[in-house]
Specification:
The chain has 613 residues and is mostly helical. It has 27 helices and no strands. Helix 2 packs across helix 4 and helix 16 runs antiparallel to helix 17. The longest helix has 43 residues.
């Protein structure tokens, strides 16, 4: 403490000197202030300077606030402006100093590490989850610094070269980052039909890295990423670093762009979510494919976990959603399974609990109910230990929903009641809205199973559902609102009120489209088809059932068979010619949602269903 007193006094004198010199016109620019700070602040004493500066700023601000004499007040204001200039330049210098220190520390750590540890350390240095992540300029400085040590060391030479080439390729890619979205008839996202005009094909034309170009072309054709990595033989460290940087900057650039489209219903957070998931899965598949080169495989897994940790901290992380509209296509159909094994090797923490929550939801959509329950139970325990109450409540709600799918309504009611009680106590309103919906939904399904005919039972359950919908609308929570609409619609359908069910199911479909949740879209359409069938509206039953069947099958959900069965009954009742005629009537509307290939695939799906009956 005694050593810091002279330093405090000297820094107080320095601040006063800069202020007086500024008032006297001896200091005429912010650059002069910056140079003084650079020359006078001693290494390791930045915190002391910040405290002195903060005290002086508060003192002068108090003078400004309390001074009544106009001349003295005017002088105090000039002093205040001068001190704020010092503060701004200190922040600038401090950031520069910290970055310089961080780069120097990183270079030392990489160059002194064992050869087989250097790639891992490099990836940790560029981790976006750091308190002060390196920007592009800092990464260039890192490459330059490594190059100075690389004259007699091949590994350092290759890491430096890989950084330089990766950043050069990223500069070429930047102006084409989202250009593919503006091409005619281009579907947003990474899934859909293999194309030469989508994102991967567009980017493949811009890079001059052979490995990266080959990967992008494989992705454009929806070929296996695992097989791509297997076929690469033994790529050089430089090529791997170059590929790694390009992929990471692409992912971050896309997320930044999508995050700025908050009011665009076609983009916004749902495509940010899809981007995080898509790139995490690609890295996981690369990790599996590079198993013949363990250093690269470990590096891929490390990057994947960095992406997931970053994703789990975003405000829009989907605690109540899972499979998203742009996260589709053949090579990504069972993609979330790729994230399971690497996550098993990570110790429990808040981020892991959130990612496992996502896996649990997705497994439920796929019809893997036991796996879904196992994931949610694991996430529940980790979230509870980590003190992540929103995640804990989300998993109670998800467990309720999954037990409904298993027709274990007693357990479903139990978990929804626990979620409702805890969310009310904690004031977690999103969790409360979901708990109300799950409780009402579970009670409706249980009453139907027990063949209870008392209207009071259903009225109580419907009341919970309506409370949940009202609360989700107040919160503006799109994902919860989509679930509420869907649950109300299904509840009315179950109790035989098809006309009342339709508006809720239609709103559920539209809201799920905005949320980007492909599973809820397909589920709402499937039940809409049933409602229209009950009302003898065959035309709309065929339209909604065909769309629902296709969307559910595209995410490998076993629930696609529900609308397929209904469509098969309809075709048997009216004959194939009449069925095809009604399907053709809605062709333009269906193509707008699922494309020409999707529309042409519907008869094949029905054929598959009939073969397995």
């Amino acid at each position: 403490m005694s050593e810091s007193v002279p330093i405090r006094d000297s820094y107080l004198a320095l601040i006063d000197e800069i202020v007086e010199s500024t008032l006297q016109g001896k200091i005429s620019s912010v650059e002069m202030v910056y140079q003084i700070l650079q020359n006078k602040i001693k290494a390791g004493t930045g915190e002391i300077f910040e405290l002195v500066l903060s005290d002086r700023l508060s003192s002068i601000q108090s003078q400004v606030d309390t001074q009544t004499d106009e001349l003295k007040k005017a002088k105090a204001n000039r002093k205040l402006r001068a001190v704020k200039t010092i503060q701004t330049q200190w922040q600038r210098y401090s950031q520069h100093y910290q970055t310089t220190e961080a780069i120097a520390s990183a270079i030392k750590e990489i160059t002194t590490a064992a050869t087989d540890e250097r790639l891992t350390i490099f990836l940790r240095v560029i981790d976006p989850n750091q308190k002060q992540p390196l920007n592009i300029q800092s990464t260039k400085q890192l490459a330059t610094g490594l190059q100075q040590f690389a004259q007699v060391d091949t590994d350092l030479q290759e890491i430096s070269q890989g950084i330089t080439c990766g950043l050069a390729n990223w500069e070429r890619l930047q102006e084409h980052l989202v250009s593919w979205m503006y091409e005619s008839n281009q579907q947003l996202g990474f899934g859909g039909v293999p194309t030469e005009s989508g994102p991967w094909a567009t980017w493949a034309k811009q890079v001059n890295s052979n490995v990266c170009q080959a990967l992008f072309r494989a992705l454009a054709r929806e070929q296996s990423v695992w097989e791509f990595a297997q076929q690469q033989g033994r790529i050089s460290l430089s090529e791997w670093v170059e590929l790694g940087l390009i992929l990471q900057y692409l992912q971050r650039g896309l997320v930044n762009w999508f995050d700025q489209q908050a009011y665009n219903v076609q983009a916004g957070s749902k495509l940010s979510i899809s981007t995080f998931l898509t790139f995490a899965v690609i890295w996981s598949q690369l990790a599996t494919g590079f198993n013949h080169q363990p250093i690269y495989s470990h590096g891929c897994s490390l990057v994947m976990l960095q992406i997931l940790r970053h994703f789990a901290q975003r405000p829009y992380f989907p605690l109540y959603g899972g499979i998203f509209a742009s996260f589709s296509g053949g090579y990504l159909r069972d993609a979330l399974d790729y994230l399971d094994e690497p996550l098993r090797r990570v110790e429990g923490n808040q981020q892991k609990a959130r990612i496992i929550t996502l896996l649990g939801y997705s497994q439920r959509a796929l019809g893997q109910y036991e796996r879904s329950i196992a994931f949610h139970q694991q996430a529940l325990e980790i979230a509870r230990n980590a003190g992540d109450l929103p995640c804990e409540l989300a998993n109670l709600n998800h467990l309720s929903r999954t037990y409904v799918q298993q027709k274990n309504y007693a357990q479903a009611i139990n978990y929804s009641q626990r979620a409702l009680m805890l969310s009310r106590q904690a004031g977690e309103r999103t969790a409360q809205a979901n708990a109300l919906v799950n409780l009402g939904y579970s009670q409706v399904m249980e009453a139907q199973q027990l063949e209870q005919r008392e209207t009071e039972v259903y009225e109580t359950a419907i009341n919970y559902l309506e409370q949940g919908l009202k609360l989700s609308e107040q919160l503006g929570d799109i994902q919860s609102k989509a679930l509420c609409f869907s649950s109300l619609g299904i509840a009315y359908l179950v109790i035989g009120q098809s006309s009342a069910a339709i508006p809720y199911l239609e709103n559920g479909f539209k809201t799920a489209q905005v949320a980007g949740d492909l599973y809820l879209q397909g589920r709402n359409l499937a039940y809409l088809s049933e409602a229209y069938y009950n009302l003898q509206n065959s035309e709309k039953a065929i339209y909604t059932g065909s769309l629902g069947m296709y969307l559910l099958e595209q995410i490998a959900s076993s629930e696609w068979r529900q609308p397929a069965g209904l469509l098969t009954i309809l075709r048997g009742q009216m004959g194939d010619e009449a069925f095809q005629y009604l399907l053709q009537q809605h062709r333009p509307k269906m193509i707008a949602i699922i494309g020409v290939d999707g529309y042409d695939y519907i008869p094949q799906l029905l054929g598959r269903y009939e073969e397995t009956m």
